[in-house]
Amino acid sequence: MQKKVACSFPDEVLEHVFSFIQSDKDRNAVSMVCKSWYEIERWCRRKIFIGNCYAVSPRMVIRRFPKVRSIELKGKPHFADFNLVPDGWGGYVLPWIAEMAGAYPWLEEIRLKRMVVTDECLELIAKSFKNFKVLVLFSCEGFSTDGLAAIAASCMNLRELDLRDSDVDDLGGHWLSHFPETYTSLVSLNSSCLGSDEVSLSALERLVGRCTNLRTLRLNRAVPLDKIANILGRAPQLVDFGTGTYGADLQSDVFSSLAGAFSSCKELRSLSGFWDVVPAYLPAIYPVCSRLTSLNLSYVTIQSPDLVKLLRHCPSLQRLLVLDYIEDSGLEALSSSCKDLQELRVFPSDPFGEEPNVSLTEQGLVSVCLACPKLQSVLYFCRRMSNVALVTIAQNCPNLTRFRLCIIEPRTADFLTLEPLDVGFGAIVEHCKDLRRLSLSGLLTDRVFEYIGRYAKKLEMLSVAFAGESDLGLHHVLSGCESLRKLEIRDCPFGDKALLANAAKLETMRSLWMSSCAVSFGACKLLGQKMPRLNVEVIDESGPPDSRPDSCPVDKLYIYRSVAGPRFDMPPFVWTMDEDSALQVS
Amino acid sequence: MSKPIEHDYIGLSEQPLPSMEKSSDTNDKKNGLRLKDTELRLGLPGSDSPEREDHVQNVLSLKSFVSGSKRGFSDALDGGRKWVFPGGSGGGSEGLFSPRRSGNNNGGNDLSEPDSGLDGSVSKDGAAHKPLVVQEKKSHVGNTAPASNRAQVVGWPPIRSFRKNTMASHPPKNDDDDNAEAKLGSGCLYVKVSMDGAPYLRKVDLKIYGSYKELSSALEKMFSCFTIGQCGSHGVSSRDGLSESRLIDLLHGSEYVLTYEDKDGDWMLVGDVPWEMFTNSCKRLRIMKSAEAIGLAPRAMEKCKNRI
């Protein structure tokens, strides 16, 4: 037929067409059409997302995509957030920066999550990329404010510096003064994680004053309440603001200037921070509340009535993070005030207490689900749950895409019937057809996994703890969940059988984490042997697993697909199960 | 060498812990098997506890490790003992919560009952003394080892470190001041530990240790691979190597000393102040070579005097 037509399209035209295709998935699909499309696409891909930094090597990426401007990398497994991954495990970004320094001189954006970033890395970034614009370090660690100073001093085109939740060695606020006086490009600054008591307020104020494009500013705790008015006064165009400490002795002049400053911020849509809140100061934000779409009160330790008073002023709220001080009554009030709510996160104020310290139960969540039809994303910590409540939630919120429930005491049964919560979670996966992320808790048998395998066809990430009875549970998930990318399991009686029977599935996923389960060392070796494109890593701090019999279970297991082969930056307590089944050690 | 441990999750095997493997008290291993930590403390906080055997089958597991808190325990627990008997568990695995069968109500639900007999010590405002109620496992004495305190389970509930540390260091203001103090000690308190010459930092949760001795031995084990210089070598010898090589006694040792940075930013020698005071003021730890630590001692003593 007319094959010639397709081939005679000039590359530039195709490239122009491809430039409208932004999503990674679509780009990947485009590159698979034919060789010439592959070639054209790879030369014009500007943005790369690498969900596991060990799945591919920097060199491979650079070889295929020579003109990248933006890169996003993720390092440690998610459970590292909860201290399950020992220090020194890995996730070092330096090798990437070092390679990209030479290969991508025009790199503009680096976004990292759960990676180890050193001051040396930051200095290298500052030195190597002349047009550097965006640095996002999400839950990273290993660097200090000295490294930030290097970035501030050199990156004249920096737009975004976001350190959210990172563990930074904060040596004081002087790094801010390293931004030259001529520097005005800042659009977004999130330094809320910095922990030092010192902050260079004058440098901050001057910086805010001269960066007229500033849209996001999240301060750290060290910035006192009485400075907020001054800062906001210099940046009335802010859209997203995070306070520092929001407590002080009540003084009417401070209050009125604060209220005045807030009311002049007509674009403000998102508020956060609010450490050490003094309730009397909260009304200062009332002028902006009606326009707020996002509110993070998760460090606000005030009681429910005060929270409710505030929330009644926020009818446009779409996203709320709050502590369980809100209680069932407060959530009920929320559900009547905030009909547009899409995301709710309720954190525990006293997670390690033996007794509930607040009256927050499953009822709070149910009342929100009943009244807020747009609810999509839930993270909820509570101490009791029932199947009936879960079924109600499932039936009333079929649009849920993320549902994470943490019943604080492991293996807590349905408090009404004393049965497992299988049926309840089963209802969630059955009714919420677009569910992408699910975290389970409570008393659960293999049955819940049967439901998940049967219904959760769009599920991409599943977190399991203290659940299940046998390998069958794991088998249901691995054989049934077609879209599964990340599976993390702790303290479940899952062993070798399900894992080995579904070995091929693991190559279709990003990663599998299993800790305190019953997978034997022998099975790990076998898996490593048989599946060359999987990296099977055993983490065991008590000593080399081969000093024990093969039937002994391993402490922690992390399996991920990779085209880069086994890594070589492992600490002494991580062993990779290699093809030749010899014990590989870093 | 340990014999193969059978993993029976319906009822954990009654094997006592192979002392070699699981007595390593790294913070990553914390769960109910921290036998040393579950000793009944008879001395004042900060004083060393008497030596214990490795496998304690029937010990009242009072966990007063959370030394910053005021948790004690109440004998009047419903008239009966609800103490957990930390028995043995398998070798590598840490799935120590025995799965409860359906209908078997667990402690979590018990606790919410107002008439659980804890009235004297528990109130919503949280009196300073919160009893450590633990699941009763009459039928599985020695079998199971659920945590005697929720905080002992690593990474559960799943709360990010940033949030935990923020809440721990700045306790919520409540009407009840006692409660604020209790909450100060709740949860965990991760501090960084660096060692001169080590390739990376570690983090330890100070709340799991009840004394300097425990902290010291935990750190020794954590960092021993660096001092012994056996980071790269594996095999049986590295395990036994722990005992024959120089186990650094960080408190009294000659080659290294353990120091800490306190809330004021000063570096002090570890061990000079009472344990509780130490955990409340320690921001980070550093294992430094003795030669560099000269001059720390006098300051520490002075500060101590000023405080007391």
Task: Produce a short descriptive summary.
The complex is a heterodimer of chains A (586) and B (308). With 586 residues, chain A is of the alpha/beta class.
Describe the structure.
The complex is a heterodimer of chains A (586) and B (308). Chain A is 32% helix and 18% strand. Chain A is an alpha/beta fold and 586 residues long. In chain A, the strands form two sheets. Chain A has a 22-stranded mixed beta sheet. Chain B has 308 residues and is α+β, with helices and mostly antiparallel strands. Chain B has helices at 19-22, 107-111, 161-169, 177-184, 212-228, 236-244, 275-281, 296-307; strands spanning 190-195, 202-205, 256-262, 267-269, 282-289. In chain B, strands 2-1-5-3-4 form a five-stranded mixed beta sheet. The longest helix of chain B has 17 residues, at 212-228. The chains are: A alpha/beta (586), B alpha+beta (308). Chains A and B meet through loops of A and helix 2, helix 3, strand 2 and helix 6 of B.
Topology:
The complex is a heterodimer of chains A (586) and B (308).
Chain A: H1 3-7, H2 11-18, H3 24-31, H4 35-44, E1 47-50, H5 58-64, E2 70-74, H6 94-103, E3 109-113, H7 119-128, E4 134-138, E5 141-144, H8 145-154, E6 160-162, E7 167-169, E8 188-190, H9 201-210, E9 216-218, H10 228-234, E10 240-242, H11 252-263, E11 270-272, H12 286-289, E12 294-297, H13 304-311, E13 319-323, H14 327-337, E14 343-347, H15 362-371, E15 377-382, H16 387-396, E16 402-407, H17 422-431, E17 437-439, H18 446-455, E18 461-465, H19 471-480, E19 486-490, H20 496-501, H21 503-506, E20 511-515, H22 521-530, E21 534-539, E22 556-561, E23 574-577, E24 583-584
Parallel strand pairs in A: 1-2, 2-3, 3-4, 4-6, 5-7, 6-8, 8-9, 9-10, 10-11, 11-12, 12-13, 13-14, 14-15, 15-16, 16-17, 17-18, 18-19, 19-20
Antiparallel strand pairs in A: 20-22, 21-22, 21-23, 23-24
Helix pairs in contact in A: 2-4, 6-7, 7-8, 10-11, 13-14, 14-15, 15-16, 16-17, 17-18, 18-19
Chain B: H1 19-22, H2 107-111, H3 161-169, H4 177-184, E1 190-195, E2 202-205, H5 212-228, H6 236-244, E3 256-262, E4 267-269, H7 275-281, E5 282-289, H8 296-307
Parallel strand pairs in B: 1-5
Antiparallel strand pairs in B: 1-2, 3-4, 3-5
